[in-house]
DNA sequence: TCAATCGTCAACCATATGGTTGAATATGGA
DNA sequence: TCCATATTCAACCATATGGTTGACGATTGA
């Protein structure tokens, strides 16, 4: 079984996908616009976007005939946390971790004071 | 051309290699000893170690007939820096994260019932 | 000296990955 | 309605990846 971490790291291992993430930092984008600066087919970019979506690094929402891509930096932070503390995290419960991150992002103040 | 970042991220994308890195956190190890807990051939582990070496995540030094593997955590820094360059990444709430970790590190049963 | 140990190499295999092209499926707008 | 636009699908291709086995070279130690 492929873990979330596997998917995040292998998604980040491709320069095209990292460049796409960098573009999405500016703003949400339509698939066609994401593909525009690349010298490869739209279908190829579409596949890259699927990989980024499965890794949780972006989400895609279809409005009309346009599918908008949005950066989801949460997924990357999981990777950073692993790198920064991979020794201690050995038997990490990823479900609980995900919940922790979700909670923290949703209500930072509440998460801080534990209420 | 494969960048350093490509190599680090794709090296980290494999669970066997992440586990090896975790083992090397404890201490330097001989190739044979690295391979021991895995249910795969020594040759397979040797290949994984080559990949980790090319990514700069470990170094290998041969003393006598034993080749010692040493963790090189600085190589991961480049990856962290790339990820953190994403401005939208809110700084992690380390206090809350610490609490989460403490809870995680208890036995699974304890963590489950929250005691 | 000579067998045992350490680790890699070479050949091979199955599957994954990253790309292509052309057809198909919405949806929007005139 | 009908065409253009947005995106994916399907088939295909070349190469990469992660594993195997068996042979091999280097080194140790009895």
TrEMBL record, chains A, B:
<dbReference type="InterPro" id="IPR036390">
    <property type="entry name" value="WH_DNA-bd_sf"/>
</dbReference>
<dbReference type="InterPro" id="IPR036388">
    <property type="entry name" value="WH-like_DNA-bd_sf"/>
</dbReference>
<feature type="domain" description="HTH arsR-type">
    <location>
        <begin position="1"/>
        <end position="91"/>
    </location>
</feature>
<dbReference type="InterPro" id="IPR001845">
    <property type="entry name" value="HTH_ArsR_DNA-bd_dom"/>
</dbReference>
<dbReference type="GO" id="GO:0003700">
    <property type="term" value="F:DNA-binding transcription factor activity"/>
</dbReference>
<protein>
    <submittedName>
        <fullName>Transcriptional regulator</fullName>
    </submittedName>
</protein>
<dbReference type="Pfam" id="PF12840">
    <property type="entry name" value="HTH_20"/>
</dbReference>
<dbReference type="InterPro" id="IPR011991">
    <property type="entry name" value="ArsR-like_HTH"/>
</dbReference>
């Amino acid at each position: 079984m492929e873990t979330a971490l596997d998917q995040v790291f292998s998604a980040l291992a491709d320069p095209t996908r990292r460049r796409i993430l960098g573009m999405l930092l500016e703003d949400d984008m339509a698939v066609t616009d994401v593909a525009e600066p690349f010298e490869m087919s739209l279908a190829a970019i579409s596949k890259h976007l699927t990989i980024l979506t499965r890794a949780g690094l972006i989400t895609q929402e279809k409005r009309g005939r346009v599918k908008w891509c949005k950066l989801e930096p949460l997924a990357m932070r999981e990777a950073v946390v692993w790198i920064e503390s991979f020794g201690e995290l050995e038997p990490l419960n990823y479900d609980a971790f995900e919940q922790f991150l979700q909670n923290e992002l949703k209500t930072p103040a509440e998460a801080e004071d534990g209420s």
